[in-house]
Specification:
There is one protein chain. The protein has nine helices and seven strands. By secondary structure, it is α/β, with parallel strands linked by helices. The chain has a single domain, classed as Vaccinia Virus protein VP39 (Rossmann fold, 3-Layer(aba) Sandwich), CATH 3.40.50. Helix 4 links the parallel strand 2 and strand 3. The N terminus is likely disordered.
C-alpha cells in the first residue's frame, strides 16, 4: 500500500499519564491473560503467530519484543529463532514481567528469553542490536507514539523489520458498530466482574484514540522506516504493520 509523505499532525495525548498506565498494568497482571482470551475468543494467539511469521526472523536471530506483557509474543518468537537465536522481552510493568517469568519457566521455550524491565521510550539497547523488534497490543499505550516508534527503529539493524500488532477500528458497518458496542459496553462489564473496572474502561478509550492504519504507516515513515505495509485481520479489528530499517544510504530518500 502507498504511504503519504505529508508531515503527520500532532498526536493526541495519551489517555492516562505513563505512571498511571504502569500502575494499571501492575494491577491487572494476574487476570490479563484470562481476559485477553475472553475478549478475543482466543484469537489473539493466532494473531501473534501471524505477526511473527511476517517479521521474517529465523534460526539464530536475536530479536526484541517491546511491551511484552505476560510474554505471549516472546514465546512465539522463541520458537521462530531456535536453534541458536535469542529473545529479549521488555516491559515497564514489573508485575507483568513476574507473570511472564513464571510462564517462560513452565513453557521451557526452545530459545532463551531474557526478560527486562525497560521503558519503550528509552530502550537500554544499542543501535542495530536486533534482527527485528515487535510490539503486540502495546503501542497504543505509548505516552509518545512517535518517540516509541523511533526507538524501535533505532535498535533494529539495517534490513530488519519493526512489526506492530494492534487493535484498530474497522470502518465497515455493521462490524464497526458491533466493535464499538463490545468495547464500550461489554469490556467494562468484564473488567467490573474481574474487579478492575477502571482498567477495562481505559481499553476502549485507548483504541479510540489510536491512529488508523494509514496514519500509523505515516508515522513509521517519519521515523525512518521504509517498505511499510500492513495487513488487517479478524474482520478488520486488528492490523499488523511492517516496516524495514533501510541502509544509511537509503534512509534519507
Amino acid at each position: 500500500m502507498s504511504v503519504s509523505l505529508k508531515p503527520p499532525a500532532p498526536e493526541p495525548p495519551a489517555t492516562l499519564p505513563e505512571p498511571q498506565v504502569r500502575a494499571m498494568f501492575d494491577r491487572i497482571a494476574s487476570i490479563y491473560d484470562a481476559l485477553n482470551t475472553v475478549m478475543t475468543a482466543g484469537l489473539h494467539h493466532r494473531w501473534r503467530e501471524r505477526a511473527v511469521a511476517l517479521s521474517g526472523v529465523g534460526p539464530g536471530d536475536r530479536v526484541l519484543d517491546v511491551a511484552t506483557g505476560t510474554g505471549d509474543l516472546a514465546l512465539v518468537l522463541a520458537r521462530a529463532v531456535a536453534p541458536g537465536g535469542s529473545v529479549v522481552a521488555a516491559d515497564f510493568s514489573e508485575r507483568m514481567l513476574e507473570v511472564a517469568r513464571a510462564k517462560v519457566a513452565r513453557r521451557r521455550p526452545p530459545a532463551p528469553i531474557e526478560l527486562r524491565c525497560a521503558n519503550a521510550l528509552a530502550l537500554p539497547f544499542a543501535a542495530g542490536e536486533f534482527a527485528a523488534a515487535t510490539v503486540g497490543f502495546g503501542v497504543r499505550n505509548f505516552a509518545d507514539l512517535e518517540r516509541g516508534l523511533a526507538e524501535l527503529a533505532r535498535v533494529v539493524r539495517p534490513g530488519g523489520r519493526v512489526v506492530i500488532l494492534e487493535i484498530t477500528t474497522p470502518r465497515r458497518q455493521p462490524l464497526a458498530a458491533a466493535l464499538r458496542l463490545w468495547f464500550e459496553r461489554v469490556v467494562p462489564v468484564l473488567g467490573r466482574v474481574a474487579g478492575e473496572r477502571s482498567a477495562y474502561s481505559y481499553l476502549p478509550r485507548s483504541v479510540a484514540r489510536f491512529p488508523p492504519p494509514e496514519r500509523l504507516a505515516e508515522l513509521m515513515w517519519q521515523v525512518g522506516l521504509r517498505r511499510i505495509r500492513w495487513v488487517q485481520t479478524g474482520g478488520g479489528i486488528v492490523a499488523i504493520h511492517l516496516g524495514e530499517v533501510p541502509p544509511a544510504s537509503e534512509a534519507a530518500r
